[in-house]
Amino acid sequence: MPPSPRPLRKQGAGRSPDGAAPPPLRVRTGMDLAEVSRVEELMSSQPELRERVFTARELAYCYRRKRAGEHLAGRWAAKEAVLKSLGTGMGPRMEWTDIEVVNDRAGRPRVRLYGEVEAVAQSLGMASIDISLSHSGGLAVAHAVMVCEPTAPYTAPAHTTDTAEAEGDETA
After folding, report:
1. pLDDT in tens, 96-144
2. Residue 15 to residues 22, 24, 27: CA-CA distances in angstroms?
3. Which pTM does this prediction carry?
């Protein structure tokens, strides 16, 4: 039998000196769905809410768009998705404007964190956060994916036999 091909990487690459695998990166996700008409109604009936929820940069971006309501709803959903990825929801000392959705030069949405939201993300070991937004049929959806550095020492999660989890029940 011919020898097997060379390995694609060096033996033991990515392992600590004692040969143990490094702890894996942790991924946290959050998702939210917002009804465009509801966000539009809130923004028109409570104008003071605009500045409490959105930064000046977000408002300028959205109101330059043909369908501003869709973009506002997308950013609203993005803020909720980020909070869900933190596992906190809107916690004490957090402000909606601590989460800002901006677009890079290619138009891709990016998240900037400030204040207490940034502090919580750092405490979780956040290395990066990515966001995806979409809107259609009167709804806007956002999905946030946060990659966190591993904590040391790493312990694999214990297998759980919780009935609700086994049945796929959500309790969030």
Report:
1. 999 999 999 999 999 999 999 999 999 999 999 999 999 999 999 999 9
2. 6, 11, 20
3. 0.75
The answer to whether 116 and 94 are in contact (CB under 8 A) is yes
The 3-class secondary structure across the chain, one letter per residue, is CCCCCCCCCCCCCCCCCCCCCCCCCEEEEEEEEEEHHHHHHHHHHCHHHHHHHCCHHHHHHHHCCCCHHHHHHHHHHHHHHHHHHHCCCCCCCCCHHHEEEEECCCCCEEEEECHHHHHHHHHCCEEEEEEEEEEECCEEEEEEEEEECCCCCCCCCCCCCCHHHHCCCCCC
Cis omega (within 30 of 0) for bond into 17: no
Q: Which residue type does 3 have?
A: P
Angle between helices 56-63 and 68-86 (to 10 degrees): 140
